[in-house]
Amino acid sequence: MGNTDSKLNFRKAVIQLTTKTQPVEATDDAFWDQFWADSATSVQDVFALVPAAEIRAVREESPSNLATLCYKAVEKLVQGAESGCPSEKEKQMVLNCSRMLTRILPYIFEDQDWRGFFWSTIPGAGRAGMDDMEDEDEGARPLAESLLLALADLLFCPEFTVQSHKRGRPESVEDMQALDSCEYIWEAGVGFAQSPPLNYIHDLNRSELLRLLLTCFSEAMYLPPTAENSLLNPWVSFFCSAENRHALPLFTSLLNVVCAYDPVGYGIPYNHLLFSDYREQLVEQAVQILIVSLEHEGRPPSPASMEEQDSDGLNNLFVNYLSRIHREEDYDFVLKGLARLLTNPLTQTYLPNSTKKIQFHQELLVLFWKLCDFNKKFLFFVLKSSDVLDILVPILFYLNDARADQSRVGLMHIGVFILLLLSGERNFGVRLNKPYSLHVPMDIPVFTGTHADLLIVVFHKIITSGHQRLQPLYDCLLTIVVNVSPYLKSLSMVAANKLLHLLEAFSTNWFLFSAPQNHHLSFFLLEAFNNIIQYQFDGNCNLVYAIIRKRNVFHQLANLPSDPATIQKALQRKRKSPNAISRTSSQETVSMEGSRPAVPAEPGTLKASLVAIPDIDKLTEKSQVSEDGTMIAVPPAEYPQTPEHSAAAGASDTESVSGRDTEDVFYTEAEMARRRLSSSSSSVSHWNPKPDWVLSWKSKLPLQTIMRLLQVLVPQVEKICIDKGLTDESEILKFLQHGTLVGLLPVPHPILIRKYQANAGTAMWFRTYMWGVIYLRNVDPPIWYDTDVRLFEIQRM
């Protein structure tokens, strides 16, 4: 009965607050305490009992009461942090205040006039919390700072959020101030050896406080994605600065809690249905706090500035600590933990639904990305052994699974970005040669081969049977293939046929002529074939055989017509069938056993919009691999001699849109889709390709190596077939396997790698993506639902 009474009293207090027209004095404790003193209201209750309309009404009609409510709630948190919450009553009060603030903050952020409220100083609020002895204005802290410091203290509060090290008596006030939180890190792992006993009450209390912290950080959601808003989030900047004495133990606690988590537990089937897993909620919040805290300061730190630890980029202590993790065992712990969690949704068991499946793989991918981006030594560690494949396989699984679902287009992008980043390193290509023996059920043709084959087969599936909005990713997918191609020792017949099928589709007249960028895709594929022929000819008889079988594709490209009549005829065909690429696949085979086909989103699924990604030439910078394997950056001026850079022929999307390359213009994907000439047949009329445009890039097509190969091998293969009456391809493959082209091919070209480079466009993409994910994943309670979010739009499928 008591619970119902307290809810009723709480609701009465809310009604009083919304109906009072006169300001209530801050000293009227009897009134304010109703909101947090005795109520046993859960966070879900608070959301139900404090409706959005009423918060907005108080904000508009009695702003001083809303201001006092926030101030009093923060004051209670500060007092709790100072006293260490020795009594249950104080613990309950802290939780109630944090729930109330979680409910109200989004409505403060959505109103521009209120956004500065937490950063103003409240008279009488001293720097040491509510210390009246200080001179009032001298030591006054902005409310936001008091709130963040109190939260940091409370996250290391003995018997509330951490295990007390003292037996018997409760810790006294001095102890809270003198407490060394590095001894209270939540989980063993990076920089900490002891694993404290699991305590689900502590986990629940941490989760409540982290939820409020995440809500504080979410001010970023209420600013539109423009260049001036790409500045820092003041809440994150302060919390991750040296002002927060718990920054190091908290960063370590969050990282360790995530990487040590094992959702399967003791391996008892269905255990997740029997026990509530409080750790999972904590892990989810920890990873969300981590990814929004780890933000670049202003500009991404260059490798040079990473060396000087005091560079601008590292005022954020979370970024600083992350970039300085260096022990091999720490890297191993983090990598194994992330791989275990990313692989979790793929685990197949004979008992349906018997193992717990986590839902936060998108946040884990962003965390993995940030680890590689901020800590280059971690990236090299990942690539040092075949452990990288434990990250690759889940990513390919997610890409393949999400390819038909427009609500998961952000997941497709983050997966491709990670592979683009990895493919810039030679070791990634080398690791792909490991045979693929796992049998993760995927809706792709069955094949026997390496991880490289898996990558190519999945990419082919994405391009030929993904939805239209993935077209901007084709450049990235093929750039990854080109980057790894010089290191691929032996492609399977399935993968070789898939690559040739892509060239066949991308080199038709109507596709080449129908948009200014489309010819780039053929250039990428030709470059990949050249790399394999020049550097890995010996093991790749399957690819050579596939090239010989499809030789007419190369001859057609070499003889590509460029007269106005043919161009117009091709564009007419484009208007009739606007599909980007032929959907009929080359010899489509049976899919893997146990796999489910990729399906579109359920109607009614919510999705967050994203800003468009920059063009591939802005996403990457070119490096040439020298004799000794080191990389030398290629200055942009030298691009024309590299085959595919005929960008002069048609400005890249962002250039043609903004006309000013130096400014950061962020377009939503929908706007970009409208601007992408290839995406709709009606817009083809704006694009009028001319013969001299076709000639400008046709002359650069890198066909010499392949033409020479065909010239030498085709007559030999035909002769064998006639002499021996062969129709059996295994004999031809045997001949090709032992053949050699030494001395017959042109001099090998230098290997060119396109390495991912961070820029303002990708930084803003990451910000909109991760906040969109966090918005949609926090539904119980729905923290931001129905508030006026500006960073992205929420759309219903």
Secondary structure elements and pairings:
Layout: H1 2-19, H2 29-32, H3 43-49, H4 52-61, H5 63-83, H6 88-109, H7 143-154, H8 173-178, H9 200-217, H10 234-239, H11 247-260, H12 271-274, H13 278-293, H14 303-307, H15 317-324, H16 328-343, H17 361-374, H18 376-384, H19 388-402, H20 409-423, H21 426-431, H22 451-465, H23 474-484, H24 493-506, H25 509-513, H26 519-536, H27 541-549, H28 551-558, H29 564-576, E1 606-608, H30 616-619, E2 620-625, E3 631-633, H31 653-658, H32 669-675, H33 691-698, H34 704-724, H35 729-738, E4 751-756, H36 760-777, E5 794-796
Antiparallel strand pairs: 1-5, 2-3, 2-4
Helix pairs in contact: 1-4, 4-5, 5-6, 5-7, 6-9, 7-9, 9-13, 11-13, 11-16, 13-17, 16-19, 17-18, 17-20, 19-20, 19-22, 20-23, 22-24, 23-26, 24-26, 24-27, 27-35
